[in-house]
């Protein structure tokens, strides 16, 4: 009897498959230089940045990063296990350690990659959080926001090193939904604030990121 072979999708380097291969610039006349690492990027993320005056250079997932090339660094969403993107993690680690920090903003997989770069841990969730109506609590104010999500991996909030703190948590299962540095302009979120045809409660996070880049 012949058996069928099955490939474990969790072991596929999906980011490598979906990321663009060469850099591409959107809105080249923008006043702020934002580098966006494409791990499976959505155009709505680029639109949110361009609408706020950014010249957005989208680069491949493993593109070398130099803080001299940008005013702010954005890391996109994407598919699969963040542990497979070790080149991205290494690149982010160097940016996080730069003597003159530039603002960093990660979304979804980008959130998980930032966490790995700073030394925290990620894990595969039993069910994942998916849908247009995931409630998230802002840690400082305890205000609840409705968010759009589609992820099967998450960040272990308890593994954050000193200087970092949880920013949001999921009101349903308590899983981490965001992290922020206590002094430097670094933050990331698990949900999709750019989501169209869904909740836009937290699209203002793009404003916070852009203002941080302007304040350099």
UniProtKB/TrEMBL annotation:
EC numbers: 6.3.5.5
GO MF term set: carbamoyl-phosphate synthase (glutamine-hydrolyzing) activity
Keyword Signal tagged: no
Name this protein carries in UniProt: carbamoyl-phosphate synthase (glutamine-hydrolyzing)
Organism: Hypotaenidia okinawae
Family annotation (SUPFAM superfamilies): Class I glutamine amidotransferase-like
Family: Belongs to the CarA family.
All copies of domain Glutamine amidotransferase, residue ranges: 36-211
Reaction equation(s) it catalyzes: L-glutamine + H2O = L-glutamate + NH4(+); hydrogencarbonate + L-glutamine + 2 ATP + H2O = carbamoyl phosphate + L-glutamate + 2 ADP + phosphate + 2 H(+)
Complex formation: Heterodimer composed of 2 chains; the small (or glutamine) chain promotes the hydrolysis of glutamine to ammonia, which is used by the large (or ammonia) chain to synthesize carbamoyl phosphate.
Pathway: Amino-acid biosynthesis; L-arginine biosynthesis; carbamoyl phosphate from bicarbonate: step 1/1
Pfam family, one: GATase
Keyword list, A-Z: Glutamine amidotransferase
InterPro entries: Anth_synth/Amidotransfase, Class_I_gatase-like, CPSase_GATase1, GATASE
